[in-house]
Amino acid sequence: MDEARTTGGAGAELLRRRNAASVLRSLRSDGPASRAELAARTGLAKATVGTIVGGLEESGVLRELEQVRSGDRGRPAVRVTLEGGRPVGVGFEANVEYVAAVAVDLAGAVRLRRTRPVADVADVADALCGLAAEVAILLAGDGLVPVGATVAVPGLIEPDDRTISWTPNLPLAGTAVAEGVDAAFGWRDRVRVSNDADCGALAELHHGAGRDVEHLLYLTGDVGIGAGLVEAGRLVRGARGFAGEVGHLLLGEPGAACGCGRRGCWEASVGLHALLERVGMAELATPRETAEAIAAAALEDPAVRAGVVASGEWLGRGLAVVCGVVDPSVVVLGGYFAPLGELVLGPARAVLTDAFAAPVQVAPELRVGALGTEAAALGAAERAVAGVLAGHTDLP
Questions:
Q1: 383 torsion bin: left (phi>0), alpha (psi -120 to 50), beta (else)
Q2: 254 vs 237: CA distance, rounded Å
Q3: Which residues are paired to 330 by β-bridges?
Q4: Fewer Cβ atoms within 10 Å of its own Cβ: the N or the C terminal residue of the chain?
Q5: Chain segment 185-213, per-residue pLDDT in tens
Q6: Can you list the domains of the chain with their CATH numbers?
Q7: What are residue 172's phi and psi, to 5 degrees?
Q8: Residue 119 has what pLDDT?
Q9: What confidence score (pLDDT) does residue 254 get?
Q10: What is the pLDDT of residue 276?
Q11: How far apart are the first and last CA of the chain?
C-alpha cells in the first residue's frame, strides 16, 4: 500500500518524503520515465506521482524531456528526468598524505573534485577544514546546494557516525573533524564521519569496478589497509560499524613492525611503506605516483619486481583468510594497488587460488579499482546524498 492514512502533520511530511524518495530512486536507477511509468515502477498512485513530480519540477530537481507517443491516439506522454546539479552530497577524505573532496548530484554525476597534498600528518585536520571552507564557497558560487557532507577517514567510527574512536595512522579523535566541517558550511550536527574503505566500496559499487556485483569485497591500499564489504548490494557494517578492519589482523610477517605498535599486522606486510622498504625506493608526493614509479621500475629491475611479487604473495595469503570468512564473488583492489595491476594481482591470485581446501570453493575474481584515490571521497559523497534518496532528509 503506497499511501498510509495519517492525520498528523509530521506523519504526512514523512510520507511525502518517502514517496518523493521512491520517485527519485526510480529515476536514478532506471532512467527517465513518464508519470504513468513512474506509478507502475514505484507502486504509487498516479495522482500521487503527479503531485510529487510537479513539486520536484518546481524546485528544480526534475525536468521534462521530449514527449513520447505510445500509439496513434491520445496525448503523448511527457517523460521526466533528474536535473543535474543543485542538490548535491559532499564527500571528503582525510588521509595520511592528502585531503580530498567530491560533490555528486542526485543523478550521480560528479560536480566538483579537489585534492590537496598534506606534508605532515599533524596538519591533516586543519587541511581538511580549509578544504571544506573552499568547497563551500565554490558550491555556492556555482549555485549548488549541499544536502549534507560525509568525511571518510582510515579508522573506526562510533555508531553515532560522528565520533572517531581510533585512527592508528592519523592524529584524529572525537568529534572535532565533524564539527570543523560543520563550521565550514555554517551547519550544526549535520556532518557525518565514515570509514574510508566502506566509502570506497560504495563508490566502486555505484561508479566503478563493482557496478555489476552483488557480493563485493573492496580493499583499499595505502599506508594502512582496510576493507569494505557489500552483500546483496548493501554495505555490511557489523554490530558497531567496525566490520572490515582487516589491516590489523595478524595476517602478515610475524616480525613486521606496524604503526599501531604491534607486530605481524597485515598492513605491515602489504601497506605502501612495507612495499617501499622491500623495493628500496623513496615515497613520492602521492600513493598513486609512488605506485606508478614502482610499476615502471619493476619492468626493468628484477629486484624491484621481486619485492612487488613478495607483497602480492602476502596480499594473497591475507585475502585467503578474509575471503574464506566472507565469501565475496569479486575483490576490488583500490588505492596504490591499482597502478601496480597484474604485477601485484598475479602473485596474489596464484596464492589465493591454491588456498581453498574444498573443491567446490572458487577463488573470487580480483579486479583493479577504477576510481583511484578519489574512491573514498566519492563514496562519502554518495553517503551524504543517500539520506534524500532514502526519504530521511528533505531537499533544500
A1: alpha
A2: 28
A3: 216, 365
A4: N
A5: 999 999 999 999 999 999 999 899 999 89
A6: 9-82 (1.10.10.10), 87-199+375-390 (3.30.420.40), 212-370 (3.30.420.40)
A7: -120, 140
A8: 87
A9: 93
A10: 96
A11: 28
Looking up cell 511527457 gives 78
Task: Spell out, as residue ranges, where the chain has pLDDT lower than 70.
Answer: 1-10, 66-76
The pLDDT assigned to 233 comes to: 81
pLDDT digits 0-9 by tens, 269-290:
999 999 999 999 999 888 889 9
Residue 169's pLDDT is what?
A: 83
Instruction: Give residue 155's identity as a one-letter amino acid code.
Output: G
Burial class of residue 386 in the structure, from the number of CB atoms within 10 Å of its CB (0-12 exposed, 13-18 middle, 19+ buried): middle
Per-residue 3-state assignment (H helix, E strand, C coil) for the chain: CCCCCCCCHHHHHHHHHHHHHHHHHHHHHHCCEEHHHHHHHHCCCHHHHHHHHHHHHHCCCEEEEEEECCCCCCCCEEEEEECCCCEEEEEEEECCCEEEEEEEECCCCEEEEEEEECCCHHHHHHHHHHHHHHHHHHHHHCCCEEEEEEEEECCEECCCCCCEEECCCCCCCECHHHHHHHHHHCCCCCCEEEEHHHHHHHHHHHHCCCCCCCCEEEEEECCCEEEEEEECCEEECCCCCCCCCCCCCCCCCCCCECCCCCECCCHHHHCHHHHHHHHCCCCCCCHHHHHHHHHHHHCCCHHHHHHHHHHHHHHHHHHHHHHHHHCCCEEEECCCHHHHCHHHHHHHHHHHHCCCCCCCCCCCEEEECCCHHHHHHHHHHHHHHHHHHHCCCCCC
